UniProtKB/TrEMBL annotation:
Keywords from the named record: Kinase, Membrane, Transferase, Transmembrane, Transmembrane helix
Domain HAMP: from-to ranges: 266-324
Protein name: Histidine kinase HAMP region domain protein
Organism of derivation: Thermovibrio ammonificans (strain DSM 15698 / JCM 12110 / HB-1)
Transmembrane segments annotated in the record for this chain: 12-31, 247-264
GO molecular function annotations of the record: kinase activity
Any one biological process term the GO annotation gives: signal transduction
One of the record's GO cellular component terms: membrane
Amino acid sequence: MSLKNLSVTQKVFIVFGIVVILATLSFFHLLSKTYDESLKIQGRSIAQEILIFRKWAASFGGVWTKDKYSPDVGYLLEIKSNGGNLLAYQGEENLGTIPAFHMYLHNPALATRELSNLSNIEYGWSFHVVSDRYMTKADKPDPWEEKAIKEIEKKIKSGDRKHPEYWGWDGDTFRYARAIFVKKSCLKCHGTPDQIDPVLYKAMVAKYGEEAVKRATGYKVGDLRGIISVTILPAGMLSTVTDVVDLWNVGALILALLIFWYFAQNEIIKPIEKLTKAAHDISLGKLDVDLGVRGLKEEEVKDEITKLAIAIDRLRASIQIAMERLRKKK
């Protein structure tokens, strides 16, 4: 169908529809980019908090828990005591006694795993540390994490050691990875054999096996130990849209559509229809048509349709003068 076979109203309606569709697509694209950016920031924030926690735990040699540990995660060392005295901070007064108890040592890796299990139950997202030189199978990277490690290694080789990170979608989940560099405190568990306490080394061998311990040790300060991998199960784009869009947004959009349509009708469509009818009447010899522009000067008007009306009115006047001259000659 040729555009010439369409009325101005139809053309305006089509253009208006195209504009609405493009604006909607643009809005959803912007929303998608904003959504991904917010998830990336969330993943980065979680990773930073876990890195801070691991640094704190490593600086104290791990986290000790009393009489309790997660059977699926286990512990590294155990202390048994027949009892003890309770003393206040920097106090010498005996505030009481406690019966026999057990203390269990959780190194930063075990503590991180327990926190991840808890966060997964409470909030639906999880995190863990993985490495291509893993000590336990739980720390072995999956395909997405293997790709993340390779991409982060590329960034490090290019000189980016400040923010070496990687993120993206893995099916329905959003995933974020950040590099973990070996600090001095990390050498207590991952340094060379002479840097690791013999008791701790034996405890790690007993838990993970000698081959696994050898694979995950021998690092020096500044080496890439692995990544902290954050997995977020988002609510979904549709849910986000319904949360963002409210009655005010819908009302503003409808009002904008009505304003546009009112403007198109009164400033474009109706004036063109009026000029079309006037030109038709003039062509039939009806020269008393009033276009409503008499007295207006074309150079003082900026509206193109009004200029066209002035031109048609001038044409009408010229035809009228010509017709009068013809009558006089007769």
